Amino acid sequence: MQRKALSLRARGRRIAFVPTMGALHEGHLGLVDLARRHGDVVVMSIYVNPTQFGPREDFSQYPRPFRRDAALARSRGVDLLFNPANLYGPSASTWVLEEKLGMGLCGGSRPGHFRGVTTVVAKLFNLVLPHTAVFGQKDAQQVAVIERMVADLDFPIRILRAPIAREKDGLAMSSRNIYLAPAERLEAPALRQSLLFARKSATRLTDPRILKKQTLAHLHRLSPLARVDYMEFVHFQTLQPLPRILRGETLAALAVFYGKTRLIDNIIF
Ligand code: PAF
User: DSSP state, 88?
Assistant: First the structure.
């Protein structure tokens, strides 16, 4: 991959990169569309990265429909698909760790997750040598952590954020949606509806504790099956908790379990 990237660069081609773990859906394909507007060659990686899964998480069950993914990627204009079997040597002992933005929210409930993400993304950047890389806003914390890593470690790469792709009923697209039982799938748009409720309520409420209480009550009314992992109002750039809701700067982030399936969504208001 690296030799290929070096030869593309030597010929003056601009590489736009879409890192994924496969099980592609329209959200990933939206990232490809954005990448195509910013590069001559679109590289997609498909690699289910073991180091970002916790010991009791879904690494072994994570869907791996490679042939379908390859066909979808090709049909949407991916030029090169990078599908390594394993990216870690047996004696690998080096990690990339961002120590601030990745600590709360998903980092709080998934210890070690962002260390795995930053390490694999740094490795992928060194292999694919992109000019631009595209990440989805659904993983708002992930993209903030990666932007921080790119700035702190001087990667010469421009990071682009693609908006959240949604199903018709508002559910954010995710490779994990296929795990949902029919009753859970029916209730899952409640994440989006609760975030919209929070945004509306924030026109009259500025205390995040009260806003959180009311938003969670709304969520539980809409979705009795939902088990909340976290609901936080943080600054959209620093991801630090806000003492007061700031209009234009608040990221409301929500993580919910349906059974063992963990879904996330967010909104900036
Ligand atoms: O967002 C994902 O799919 C993954 O976290 C990523 C960025 C491909 C790293 O494994």
Answer: -
Cα 186 to averaged position of ligand 1 atoms, centre (Å): 27
- Asked if 81 and 67 touch (Cβ cutoff 8 Å), the reply is no
Per DSSP, the residues of 47-76 read ---GGGS-TTSSTTTS---HHHHHHHHHHH
**Residue type (1 letter), 212:** K
Can you tell me which residue has the tokens 């209480």? Answer: 213
- % of the chain at pLDDT higher than 90: 99
In whole angstroms, give the CA distance from residue 235 to residue 244. 10
Q: Cα of 141 to ligand 1 centre, how many Å?
A: 12
Which letter, b or e, does each residue of 198-231 get, where b requires 16 or more Cβ atoms within 10 Å of its Cβ? Answer: bbeebeebeebeebbeebbebbeeebebbebbeb
| Ligand 1 atom closest to 20 (CA) | 8
User: Are 38 and 160 in contact, with CB atoms under 8 Å apart?
Assistant: yes
How confident is the model at residue 70, as a pLDDT? 98
Give yes or no for residue 204 having a pLDDT over 90: yes
State the pLDDT at residue 247.
86
**Residue 99: per-residue pLDDT:** 97
pTM above 0.85, yes or no: yes
The pair of three-digit structure tokens given for residue 254, joined into one six-digit string: 């929500």
Q: Using the predicted structure, report yes or no on whether residue 216 has a pLDDT greater than 90.
A: yes
